[in-house]
Amino acid sequence: MKFGLLVIVALIISAIGANFLLQDPGYVVINFRGYLVEMSVPVLVALVVSLFLSIWLVVKLFHAPRKLGEAAARYRAGRAGLRLTRGVIEVAEGNFAKGERLLARAAGVSEAPLLNYLQAARAAHLLGQSERRDTWLKQAYENLPGATNAVLLTQAEFQLDQQQYEQALATLRKIEENTPNHSHALMLLGRLYFRLEDWKHLSDLLPKLTKLGRLDPAILEKWSLRVHQEHLASAADGDAVNAAWKQIPRQLKQNVALLESYYTNLIRTNMHEKAEKELEAELKRGWRAPLVRLYGIVEGKDAARQLKKAEGWLTDHGDDADLLLSAARLCLRAELWGKARSYLETVIGIRPTPDAYQLYGRLLRQLGEGEAAAEAYRTGLGLVAQTRLPAIPHLKPDPG
User: Could you give the domains of the chain?
Assistant: First the structure.
């Protein structure tokens, strides 16, 4: 548009100038160091214009190689960008081999080679080609020193995905050397410790993860609960259990799984009286099935008093299978066989479980009902296996 306008203006000016020059072309004399040059004005104008055009053409020719190089680079970068896009699409659609080829081919001329290398590594990883995956990551690591952490984090994620835990640990430690307390690296390290069940190191790491505030709160709580459960389970005696419990944050102490672990380990370390007293108080605050079940397992000083307490709760929770099972356990401790049988049969009628059938089988054996006890054990095992086990046939003596 601009060029066309300039042409029109030039034509108009030329026409006007020609009109004047044709009437009187003028006369130009140039005297320079004894040389005399004579010409008309149109000829002089033509020479000046030719001179400027020649200079313009020389300048253009001088810059032409650079301009051609830039144009070629833009063309190659455009094609590389298209290949990157196509490669990412192919990988996303599950065509990993094709996507890897496209990404690798464009990496050398891409404006964002890191994306090419990382996506090619991901494609190789999804193909199960660990060596090729590591080759792409190595090229990214060597050619793009500013992206060291990004490459190492990607490598650690791949190694975790393939359960290469020793390699992942080495990679994450390298990141720690480069950038101490790198938030994403710490989160991956936490995931690694959890999978390895390395509760000591995970316990040491949790305060940092909590302070960072970037980990999903649900995952942080899951890891914290598991660490505290393991601390309780590894406690050597009752004092150690109490010490471990005191280390638990107040907001976690009402978690039912953690409470169950606490009381279970009090029972394991023969802290029955403490467990009985605290269980009663806890059930008064809130009725929770795992704690109700534990009340039947704890061996308090006075089994009769404990049974009376459980039967008192039956007034409000008469159809609670967990409470009925606990009452049955307490009856067995008190050798109240008839009452225990009644409770167990009620439990089995409400919610048959392997535990209930096991206790029922023990009771029937105690009462001398061997065949009924065997049937109860078999039914309980069937519930565990999800298939009913066939009766064991009676052995017959070999014919003489």
Answer: 79-143 (1.25.40), 319-390 (1.25.40.10)
Question: What residues pair up with 30 in beta bridges, in sequence order?
Answer: 37
Enumerate the H helices of the chain as residue ranges.
2-23, 41-92, 96-106, 113-126, 130-143, 148-161, 165-178, 183-196, 199-212, 217-233, 238-246, 256-268, 272-285, 289-297, 303-313, 321-333, 337-350, 354-366, 370-385
Two structure tokens written together for 13:
């000016």
The answer to whether the CB of 79 falls within 8 A of the CB of 106 is yes
Write down how long the chain is.
Answer: 400
Q: What's the pTM value of the predicted model, to 2 decimals?
A: 0.70
Question: What residues does 32 pair with on adjacent strands?
Answer: 35
Gap between the Cα atoms of 118 and 32, Å rounded: 72
Q: Which of 334, 391, 346, 340 is nearest to 365 (CA)?
A: 340
What are the backbone dihedrals phi and psi of residue 177, each rounded to the nearest 5 degrees, phi first?
-65, -40
Of 43, 17, 19, nearest to 30 by C-alpha is 43
What's the pLDDT tens digit per position in 34-49? Answer: 677 666 666 666 666 6
